[in-house]
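Limitations
The structure tokens in this dataset are predictions for the assembled complex, not deposited experimental models. Users should treat interface geometry with appropriate caution, especially where small molecules or nucleic acid strands are included. An illustrative entry is reproduced here so readers can see what is and is not provided.
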Amino acid sequence: MSTAAAPRRVQGAAPPALPGGHRPLLGLALAAVGAAVVLSPHVWADAWELTGVSADYLWFYLSAWAPFALLALLAGWRGLLSPALAAGLVPALAVVTLLVQATPSLEAVAPTVLCGAVLTAWGADAHRRRSRPASASVPLALAAAGFVVLVVVGGRLGQVDSVAEISTFTVIFASIAVEALPFVLLGALMSALIEVFVSDRAFERVSRLPLRLQVPGLALCGMAMPVCECGSVPVARRLILRGVHPGAGVAFMLAAPILNPVVLFSTAVAYSGQDAVLMVAARAGLGLVLATTSGLLIARLGAGKLLTRPDAGHHHHGAGRIRRVMDHLSSDFFFMGKFVVAGAALAAALQTMVPQDVFTGVLTTPLVGAGLLMVFAFLLSLCSEADAFVAISFVQFPIGAQLAFLVFGPVLDIKLSLLYAATFGWAFVARLAVITIPIVLGGSMLVQAVAG
Amino acid sequence: MSLDWVRVVRGAALIGWAAFFDWLWLSGRAGDYVGPRTSWVVPFGGIVLTIASVLYLRSVRRAGGVSRPASAGELLGLVALLAPLLLVAAAPSSSLGALAVDRKRSTGDQVAAVNRLDNTAELSLYDIAGANASTEYARDHDVGPGVRVDVDGLVSAPLENGSFELSRFLASCCAADAMPFSIRVQPPGDAQEYELSQWLKVAGTLEQIDGNLVLVAERMEPIDRPSNPYGL
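Predicted assembly:
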């Protein structure tokens, strides 16, 4: 019997990244990809094609290539970065490098920043490998590569090949994020305060109420919560986690962005001088009916395990209240924020690539117009506290269609779909769409009939 | 000091957003992203995010010796959350331009939007576009042939006979809902050609040509992008 035992891997030690003989190959590959990225605009950018490859630009080429060279050194020749993470970093470096090559003012700064990013990734990777042997680099690399492929393929299909497209996308993308994130933070703060400061007894009292009272009661509570749709999701999630019936939590979540005083006030201001009372009353009424009906139907269809992620936060229950508030706040903010940003990116991409007159100029009858403006509300992903100012600009559409825009948008749009899916699952999104679309269409037709 | 690295990274992301809001607020560039009506969101966001960052960073010390490495999902989420900042840093500084005018061109009622401007100052590009859309608006606001105007806007499209389209956006909330207003400008004979999205100050007289009010320019000069590109 052989006594030679296989060498045992020490718990927590870094797994071998790559056989030593293959490292130079990986290093060469990374360096070559970097060179191809840096020089590629000579093939596809008109301005670069005209100037051609020139030794005059050697310093620029070298500086832009430096982050890739650093990556090749760390992952290839030195074996200090896992090959999977290196592969994930390459497309990210490529995208940033190509973007920056169109921005002369950033040419000098970007390589330094990117080198810093590579070193940070190396540090984080080393920390992770010391802490946990299981590799998280592969999914990270695949997701990063997938994102880049999506951007590149989407960009090519949509002919996003110039500075104007990138610039327009960036402005709209950042503007939606700038508008939404403070409200996500506010919602996360309210959620955290509820978690830390409201006693279990209060939630027990609410959860003991019969469902027929609990659902409309929570929907009406939305009137007192000055949060928009991005903020209402974490609050509703927290209510459900604390024992409120999921149907009632959903009713609150749908009602708050429509019924809250800030939204109703902005609606009144936008429609001042023309149908303000009718529009405010119709928006509040249809919103309340929609939220209550949706809550009751979702409860009846079975909402036992609505939350996909019960509570992923890492909280220290023995810690002080401020630390606990900040733990819950950050957990909700980072969980929700990334989906709001992803939704903003989709909405911005649509606005950049698809001309809006595709959607207007035809089909402005009440029913089709309402459907069209609901599609518009879904795509635009506007904040409910300002959407009335947009709705009023659709004057070629009848008032019922404008109402559909105002009620449907705060309930279901691109960014909310991603947020709902992350919180409650995609089945919930589909169920919500099936419930809300006929209610909004029916309600808007009714108001149209009343308004004449 | 033993640090909780997940908290450090999350704190850094919060600081990044707080710094971005503060920069927008202090540099006056908030107008590139949000409209005048909702510009309060920027100082509000700057203050609450800064406070949240400071409070959060107070807790970066590891509690109870527990070390929790960041998962791939968490790292990806943080990258996604910071993507707008990365893009803003990488892309050229700008507001919506000629491409956005083209994409956002719609049949929306410009008169209704202009009526809500509460504009009591001198005639603007919005008023001229509103007058082209409604004779009633033109009559109520004394916009018509022979009126001298001095407006600014961005070059959004070349038109026939050497004329071009001058546009401005009006946003209720942010750049996502900004609506373009456009007028035709007939430049003087010796005028140079300007690139798309170039901001211009144009002075001249309104004339009725082909049923529309056209600004016949006497003087045109390039200007920097204003701090409020989506409002008055």
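Some entries come with short summary sentences. For this one: Helices of chain B lie at 5-27, 41-57, 72-90, 98-104, 110-115, 125-133, 135-140.
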